[in-house]
TrEMBL record, chains A, B, C, D:
This is MCD, Malonyl-CoA decarboxylase MCD. One of its GO terms (molecular function) is malonyl-CoA decarboxylase activity. One of its GO terms (biological process) is fatty acid biosynthetic process. It comes from the Bacteria. Pfam families: MCD, MCD_N. InterPro entries: Malonyl_CoA_deC, Malonyl_CoA_deC_C, Malonyl_CoA_deC_C_sf, MCD_N, MCD_N_sf. Residues 77-160 form the Malonyl-CoA decarboxylase N-terminal domain. PANTHER family: MALONYL-COA DECARBOXYLASE, MITOCHONDRIAL, PTHR28641.
Amino acid sequence: MSVTFLSELMSEISQRGRSFLQRNREQPRNPIELCEALVSRRGEVSSFVLSEAVWQSWDRLDRKGQVDFLIEVAQRFGPDENAVLEALAVAQERRDADAYHRLHRATEPRSQELIRRLNMAKQGTLRLVRMREVLTDAIGEHPALAHLDGDFFHLFNSWFNRGFLELRPINWNTPASILEKFIEYEAVHEINGWDDLRSRIEPKDRRLFAFFHPQMGEEPLIFVEVALTSQVPNSIQSLLATDREEIAPEQATTAVFYSISNCQNGLKGISFGNFLIKQVVEQLRNELPNLKNFVTLSPVPGFRRWLDGIRKDEQQTVLAPRDLEALAALDEPDWSAETESVYALNPLLQGVAAHYFLAARDKRNRVIDPVARFHLGNGAKLDNIHTFADLSANGRRNAYGLMVNYRYEMSEIEANHEAYAERGDVVASPSVRSLLKKFQSKTKIAHAS
Amino acid sequence: MSVTFLSELMSEISQRGRSFLQRNREQPRNPIELCEALVSRRGEVSSFVLSEAVWQSWDRLDRKGQVDFLIEVAQRFGPDENAVLEALAVAQERRDADAYHRLHRATEPRSQELIRRLNMAKQGTLRLVRMREVLTDAIGEHPALAHLDGDFFHLFNSWFNRGFLELRPINWNTPASILEKFIEYEAVHEINGWDDLRSRIEPKDRRLFAFFHPQMGEEPLIFVEVALTSQVPNSIQSLLATDREEIAPEQATTAVFYSISNCQNGLKGISFGNFLIKQVVEQLRNELPNLKNFVTLSPVPGFRRWLDGIRKDEQQTVLAPRDLEALAALDEPDWSAETESVYALNPLLQGVAAHYFLAARDKRNRVIDPVARFHLGNGAKLDNIHTFADLSANGRRNAYGLMVNYRYEMSEIEANHEAYAERGDVVASPSVRSLLKKFQSKTKIAHAS
Amino acid sequence: MSVTFLSELMSEISQRGRSFLQRNREQPRNPIELCEALVSRRGEVSSFVLSEAVWQSWDRLDRKGQVDFLIEVAQRFGPDENAVLEALAVAQERRDADAYHRLHRATEPRSQELIRRLNMAKQGTLRLVRMREVLTDAIGEHPALAHLDGDFFHLFNSWFNRGFLELRPINWNTPASILEKFIEYEAVHEINGWDDLRSRIEPKDRRLFAFFHPQMGEEPLIFVEVALTSQVPNSIQSLLATDREEIAPEQATTAVFYSISNCQNGLKGISFGNFLIKQVVEQLRNELPNLKNFVTLSPVPGFRRWLDGIRKDEQQTVLAPRDLEALAALDEPDWSAETESVYALNPLLQGVAAHYFLAARDKRNRVIDPVARFHLGNGAKLDNIHTFADLSANGRRNAYGLMVNYRYEMSEIEANHEAYAERGDVVASPSVRSLLKKFQSKTKIAHAS
Amino acid sequence: MSVTFLSELMSEISQRGRSFLQRNREQPRNPIELCEALVSRRGEVSSFVLSEAVWQSWDRLDRKGQVDFLIEVAQRFGPDENAVLEALAVAQERRDADAYHRLHRATEPRSQELIRRLNMAKQGTLRLVRMREVLTDAIGEHPALAHLDGDFFHLFNSWFNRGFLELRPINWNTPASILEKFIEYEAVHEINGWDDLRSRIEPKDRRLFAFFHPQMGEEPLIFVEVALTSQVPNSIQSLLATDREEIAPEQATTAVFYSISNCQNGLKGISFGNFLIKQVVEQLRNELPNLKNFVTLSPVPGFRRWLDGIRKDEQQTVLAPRDLEALAALDEPDWSAETESVYALNPLLQGVAAHYFLAARDKRNRVIDPVARFHLGNGAKLDNIHTFADLSANGRRNAYGLMVNYRYEMSEIEANHEAYAERGDVVASPSVRSLLKKFQSKTKIAHAS
């Protein structure tokens, strides 16, 4: 027996030695080799260690190195060519569900499995979102990255499925480490430090809601700021005024969504806003049954560029000559809504804006305004047009001060969405449509005369 | 203006009317129609309402109705045929990454999008897991469901990615509503009510760990029960004895994984056990640096069936005739390990078992024992063979009382896994290999003589 | 300088030496000496260490040793005699607020400071409650402990002030380690294991509320079990029946407090029940505005003893001779409410019971029933008398099956309490008072005849 | 029966009527009457409603009205005079434990019961702390409030017993609503807004710990700021420098308590600091076993006033004439430590400071410095004297820039405390004592010469 035992022991030792050598041999591998190992069969059992190793390599790369790495991944982690060819051959012969299924499996790029396994490391999802941030930045210069970006998008779309999102009210009891992110991420109406933040979340008639994801820790995905008011507001400055009078939430009739910001560039294209607004509407309606109006107070980022284009276009038929002249009052660098000639523009601007939303279209025959496309696509309707409603530098530069309300009426959302998505109709309130009618008939008369 | 306003109002009314009719028309739709609506463009904006409607239809169906529904989904929600044919034509012409990518997208069955959208309802993930439970039950009778099951598997594999799993220690401070699930789901060594449960989680030298998923609420996915001991145990009855002496965790040298149970039939095929064991090893090692041995005390569910096969096989060469006779002692309905003729079988049974693990293979040339395949595939090694180690009815019926230890040695896991996965080698301790040598030489001599 | 430094060093060393010796000298002190040190000036700075040392000594004592220790504390930790005499002398001279204040301070027994400092150890409050349990047990044999018990009571009354209590709903999501305490502490209607417990907290029409204290960890102080029903119940067996039909809480009109149990003997005399019931009434009323009736279904623990006393008393005038005879039907060991002669007792028993509550008094001229005293003192009114309402062994033994409802009507509580506390009036519903009238007139006639 | 029923009904109605009238009659009562009702027997059952009513009256009073109310309480809620006289008479006759106990109970002012019952309202404890803030503010003008303040103190001392305090680490994950309180309450080294706060709690080598009380919600009682460093610091400016190099906590050898602030004026006199420091020491020692030194970097608020007193005192013998002259360099309004004549003062200032701590005493024969009294009373020892260590306006004004380290050596605390508390000895390190020796011998020589 001692002989047997000794020989066993020898074999044991040699086995350990092999494993030791292997491990040593592997240490200095570059990230691409690590990725290959990670998607290999061995990766199954060592995914935790290997994925961590990839991430540490990645962290050591500079921006250029990271882009080069992504390009190499895009090139090397496509589908298995042989498997594709075989599946194609089969599909040629018999065009049935089985064949298609096989084709689908065979054409899955290995990069998808790579991304899934990279997700196994600690904070994998957050790291992947950051990785895609680099990727989407680089895609302009390196179009070859498009398919890899598609893989990220496909998986993120599945992982960030609405079923996995968690809506959290944010308030002054929220940890400071989370609050500071809202200061950082607010993209519509800048938050100037802690006192400004406090003025948006501490008063009882102000709310902030954000979506979080269980795997993204304290990183918000998107958030919306809400004001509870006793009437639909017509200016952002009055809404945010620090000396405004606070009202009791129970007395509010209107919830105004005055700012929606996406937080993660790495989640570009994944749509959260639609769900966020509707879930917040539902939550507020439960808490405050007196709320009747759910409206936005939204910027019109494409308005000025479009209007200026028309003003320069000698062929245009949108504006009557007299109106063209009147609009020159807005060319003053510091025009004021108090100036008579500007104030007098009010009906004209409203009419032009109604035209911009309801009649004008871009080259792809779409509604021109991106914010409009977002809300109309969600099933909201265009409810009101407010001139001189955002007199900040930004508001003047983009929209000559114009803002609008979109209204979310739960019982109409489906019909509105269909009207817009299938027939391209912009559903608008009677008053907005009436603005257009008046504007068009006046212009027609002007052109006719 | 009054004319304009009136006409606007009329149009408004008609618009509302249309929406009302649509909604009424839609109400009594069957679940398949609801699914069609859900994956349609309109589904984007109404996914929450529509997915909820599908689920409510589903809940109203009886088992047969549910299976019929799944079969219809499998038939109707394949890929868009036209898109596939177009993509195929392109791929015929140019076999490049673009073409394959397009092919991959085109061949994705619409059922995948359906499942993703069904996930948007409240408790969507849990409901989908329950739906797949019905599906996998029915698949034997209805093989046409296989591809749909593949879609579930594909998405679950992505959603239940290890990065999304949460390891929770379970103890006597855990809510009763969660604890009762472990009584229900324990599949290896039955838990007889609350006192038995308590004896497995309250003592300081006993632990229970489970994986949870953020979208599955209080439903565990898999759990493992651990005993902290001062030596590697050789019998389950002594391990679970209620009168055993408790030891201080700091004095334990050995963590024994004595029961691993999957909880969700609807997650069949998604592998959690591998990660669970390794994460628990890591956690225990951090908490209790004195732990040196991480071993299982595992059943051998295929042993008796295999051995009985050999005993009936007149052509067999595994057992010497004398040994065949000796084994007859186990045919007594109530054989006892105290009986001399049984007790004397000890070396023989150990040798036969070593053969069963190390030498015998099934028709597909695999290790026969499914539990062995699981642990060897995870990179564990076969460490010890214990006869008369589980004398429960179950233990006798399946394995003539045999149990084994698999050992998880973190530094060897990768090498062990490779040896097994790539070369089919079962890594075993010197003592187990020595058992095989002795058994084989004795048998050879016996056959030779 | 070196000389200076050396001499400093010497002094340093001697200082450390002294401290070392002191510490060594102190180690083996007995608990009384430790207590003396703890209330001394030095105790201020070392209270944490010293109080822990007292507790460890206490834990090592057996029950007799603990009682002896308490007796010694009672003897030695009275007020400082000299300070009392001085303060008395001052008070003799001038009877003013200053003098009284000084007297109050001087007469405070040192045991109060001792208890306060013992509270500084880990889990100090819980340990003190357990200590008082020993004390109250021993007080019968050792009346000298009464003042010390008064000190505990005084401090507990302050520490367990309602402002410090936390009301928690208990349900099936509560940790098992807390739930098991309710099985242990239920004193009115025994809970038979986990399934019985579950039937009392999991159904939507059943609630359990308990008071906790921040310093008592998971130990409940008192709890009440509530059934939500559609009518005022008249029998405990039907209320607890496992096959009863569950109702939706929103449909309930009545909250029945069917069991109230104190959990801590060491808190004897500290009154929580009053606050508990009222806070639960308030909480349920907020959650379920449909609730109209808040009633108990209470035992009548003193009824049988009182009635049997009358039955044996040859001088009694409460019962008519004919009624005395009729009551003999209850002397059958297994009398059944179905037996005609028993069933016929119904009106008589109700009348006798009305007399028991409204007319009979004990030697101290109090309402006889302790449960009645509790609820009437809280401002409840006696609402209903139910015969054959608790046919358990307990219910027969104590009350011939009788139970009653007390009703908590928030708008009447203050007046009810005053009527009872100041004039000794038992506020009862018209129907109960009518029972008494009928019983009395019948009896009068019988005695007259 | 109908007669009976009717008469019952009449009585019922009259009863309700009485209760209604009482309630109406009571409504407009002033706070003192409400307090009387609250401590009366009726108060037992209605304490919740009545205490709330007192608080609402209190909230409506202006500051003067509140002080008047407190004065009236002080006058009217003393002990029951008759009970005191009876108890006195008894005590005259027999001077035993019983008599003293009775005397103690009889002399308890009713204001104590009042405070206990006011504590039953929502947020009662916090409101009482705020009430005492008013009281302590007014006590200078109204010495008659002293006894009432003593009642508050007595009860707070019991309620804020160390056993009830909760130590919480505060960091950047703490809710903003709590963090802002630290900005408000920091009393030693002002926190200038959120960025400054962040620099004190977010870096890994900075900590902040606070005591909370379960009944005080988010209001901290006291907090300490700690810096983890690699050596004992000798200047506050270098410690707080924003450009300092952060170190890993594991590498720190020293925990510096550089700021301790009480937060609640209403808890004046209740001592938390002692426990806070010791508990933080214990917690840090557990977490970071490498920590060897636990020292403060403390201000010396009484130093300059004392030194200036001596400089003006023509009879003084502490300073040699030459030293007196040299100190004139500090009379420059903007003296700088870089100026040669100031820099040269270093040894002199250290010597004078050693004298200030070790030799000088105030009229009550106490150590002069209040911060020194606090730390020495806690058992710390004077470890180091640093000149030019706090060059802020505050540091120059109070201490000519001087700061000191007190050292908490757990094994010496008891001995240090006893030395100080019983013999008045200031325990100091050899180096500090050596400074004194040198200073005294030099001065003696100077005076002698």
